[in-house]
Design a protein that fits this description.
mainly alpha; elongated; Non-ribosomal Peptide Synthetase Peptidyl Carrier Protein, Chain A; about 140 residues; 2 strands
Length: about 140
């Protein structure tokens, strides 16, 4: 059983998956910063200062100054802005992953593509054809 586990862990797929998860976690922090620090201000500018991250609806009918205040009061809320930001984060991550997969596939195709034979300098007869012609000419002569 232990040997089977060692074999499982030693396979490349498990190691690749672990590296992917670690890179993905680090990439998530970058995307969160991108959305929060760069995209949200632009969206806020376009929408007249609306901050999606603070957009919520209190289900108890209370009036709270912020999502944090509602959470502190223990009010149930629909955190619509948090959901919108999660969707934006997902779309950005999905697009970047799409671009990465597309790039990797192009690199794989280029590496697996068989080399095309070099074009002949002239379209004349091959060496074998010339030798056969010489042989035939010598037989006649």
């Amino acid at each position: 059983m232990i040997q089977e586990f060692k074999n499982f862990i030693a396979r490349g797929n498990v190691v690749d998956m672990a590296v992917g998860i670690i890179i993905g976690a680090a990439f998530t922090a970058i995307v969160t910063s991108l959305v929060g620090d760069l995209i949200n201000p632009v969206i806020g500018l376009i929408t007249g200062g609306i901050d999606f991250s603070g957009w919520f609806y209190a289900l108890d009918g209370g009036d709270y100054a912020s999502l944090a205040a509602a959470a502190e009061a223990g009010a149930p809320v629909f955190a619509i802005g948090s959901f919108v930001m999660a969707v934006i984060n997902f779309l950005i991550v999905a697009f970047v992953v799409f671009l990465l997969v597309k790039m990797v596939n192009r690199i794989k195709e280029a590496a697996e593509k068989p080399e095309e034979p070099a074009e002949e300098a002239s379209k004349g007869p091959t060496e074998l054809e010339v030798l056969l012609e010489i042989r035939d000419a010598l037989k006649k002569g």
